[in-house]
């Protein structure tokens, strides 16, 4: 007689993305995304934002006390930036050959060399340095201070602070339009703010209708639209000129990043429940959810290669932290971080 399978193991097997690979949708149609496998980043398990360096074909991931630098083609860890005290995000100045990583615990921005990954300078910016982006149009690194309700603007060439911008709420992530404007989600007030980078002036603050707890934020330079991922499992499409919410689209829970494929006119919201929401951008601000792609439990952040459209999602090995004698109290923990790759089939 076959041995009974413990209930906790059955539950784990039914979770989205639990265990092995995720099968690609069948049959394939244009716009499907094919799971191409995963690779290890290593321990410890905690991770945060990811950025893609298209010029060098590298993926960078905030990974507790370091920035993991990954050769995307070889799918392997090539080095680390550190030590950091609470690694969060990474801004990439490809032309200057510099990276800028937020170290939240000690409130610094670490400037590092993209060639050999050594830290060049530690720039004090303020408590809870979190989200960060580099704006190639102005040559400025934009840092969000989550506990300080501020944006800090840093000139990449001189590594000097140019402005500190007070905000009416706690900032989460930052996007820039390449033409002198920065945008930031205010997660504590459900708002979106616009800042003029040259002057450091707070120009506008708008309410994100239908959005609670905005996190991920991305700007599409082709359509000139902003996309904000929200804690109540929706994505807001926003006009950056007026702040008007053009559409509110259903997504998944516990999302933490928004990725945009400008070439294909697609927006992606990776969700913590092991799903990836794919949104299409049509003419005349027509937005629609195209499909929901199964991924891995906890894969709520990631990056995109703008040249290929390849998606890189970070997640962790699932470990059940309760024993088989306690099936009603199943709890999960994470082991080493992994990166799952999804490729477009068109």
Q: Summary?
A:
The chain is mainly β and 346 residues long.
Distance between the termini: 49 Å
**How many DSSP helices?**
1
**DSSP, total strands:** 28
The H-and-E topology, N to C, reads as HEEEEEEEEEEEEEEEEEEEEEEEEEEEE
Q: Residue share in helices?
A: under 10%
- Assembly state here? single chain
Mean pLDDT across all amino acids: 90
Q: From the alpha-carbon coordinates, what is the Rg to the nearest angstrom? A: 20 Å
User: Could you name the ranges where pLDDT drops below 50 across 5 or more consecutive residues?
Assistant: 1-27
Written overview of the protein:
This protein has one helix spanning 7-14, and strands spanning 33-42, 50-53, 58-63, 66-71, 76-81, 87-93, 98-103, 108-113, 119-124, 129-135, 140-145, 150-155, 160-166, 171-176, 181-186, 191-196, 201-207, 214-220, 225-230, 234-238, 245-250, 259-261, 266-271, 275-282, 286-294, 301-304, 311-320, 332-344. Mean pLDDT is 90; it is low at 1-27. The strands form seven sheets. A four-stranded antiparallel sheet has the order 1-28-27-26, with no helix packed on it. The N and C termini lie far apart (49 Å). With 346 residues, the protein is mostly beta strands.
Tags for this model:
346 residues; mainly beta; four-stranded antiparallel β-sheet; 53% strand; disordered N terminus
